[in-house]
Structure formats: structure tokens, C-alpha cells
Automatic annotation (TrEMBL):
The chain crosses the membrane at residues 37-61, 90-109, 129-148, 185-206. This is Uncharacterized protein. It comes from the Eukaryota. Keywords: Membrane, Transmembrane, Transmembrane helix.
Amino acid sequence: MEKRPSHSSFSASSTSPRDVHLASKLRALAAVDNARLAATTLALLMGMTVLGVSGNTLAVYDHTKLPATAPGAVSALPGLWPSEFNMRPTVSLVAGSVFVVLAGVAGLVGGKVKAVRANKMVHTSTSLAAPLVGLVAALVAVIFFYAVNASEEVDTFLSWTCRWKAVPMATQPRWDTLCAQSWTGVYMAVLLIPVEAAALGMAVWCRKAEKEVDEYEAAQGK
């Protein structure tokens, strides 16, 4: 298993300009890496929030919709949901948030678990792949959500629940709560984009800084 260079291997008494520059680079690397882990943690929490609220709205819909009837048959009960209904925007938020959560967990494992950090290839791969996967997942979910909701031909979960949010309901579906949860999921998914982008940018910078440290160590060993 390839081990990462130990920062403590550089003597504190080194006074050459290159050693001073290296010490400064190591301090900056540690600070940026901690900020990257903080951004990854924030993205994970936001992804879990999107998954929670969007998953709950889907669960409410599944429990309150009328059971399917035979083709051409008419249900004796009035439906709370329209017959033509597009759930794909909400499903896209759930699917995207699942990828964000999985990527966030992988990123934290790669950054916090010593056994993983000791393997430079695994650590570098997870630190770069986790925010990239999260960013792509958030972008796809948000773009798809707004693209479908822009259509006025078929109702979506957001358009339907927010249309009836002023109508009080003693039991589920509570339109005002479902409308608020839908918007919370959307806003969190949108905010995930800059958070994941920041984490990816810091991961790229850390990779570049680590490469410079490796090159310096190789030169010192010659």
C-alpha cells in the first residue's frame, strides 16, 4: 500500500527558501483539505435533506392516491390527485440526492479514514470523484426538474400541491406542507450546485499541491 508523505518529515529548523515555501504550501494544503471536507459534509447533509423531503412527498402521494382501476372503469371515490400527473421531477430529485449522499459518504471515508488516506490513489480518486458525481447529479436533477415544470400541459407534484395549498386538510395530503417540502427540496438541490463545485475546485487544488510536494520530496531524495 502506497503511503502518503508525512508532513512531519520536514524539519522545522529548515531555513532555506525552498523549505520555507514548502512549509507554507503544506499549511495551505491542510487548510484547503479541511475546507474541502467541510464542504463535502455540508453537501452530504443537504443531499440527505433533499432525499428526505422529496422521498416523503412521494410516500404521501403513494398512500393517498386512488388504487388503479380497470381500463374504462370509473372509480366511485373522488380523486385527490389528477388523472394525468407527472411525478418525474420529484423522482429526479430523489434519484439525484441518492447519488449526492453516496458520493458524500465516499468523499468523507476517503478523507477521514486513515487506512484510505494512506493509499494515495484511492484518496485522490475519492476526493475528486465524490464532488464531481455530486455536482453532475445535482445539475441533472435541477435541470430536469425545471424543464418538466415549465410545461403547463400536465400537472406536476409541485404545481398541484402549491395550487391547493390554501385549502386546509385535516389528514394527508396536507397541501401546504407538501408544497413547502417540494420547494425545500428544489432550493436545496439548487444550493448543492455551488457547494459541490467549491468542493471539486478545492479537490483539484489539493491534488496540484500534493503533486508539487511529491516532486519536491523526489528532488530531495536524489
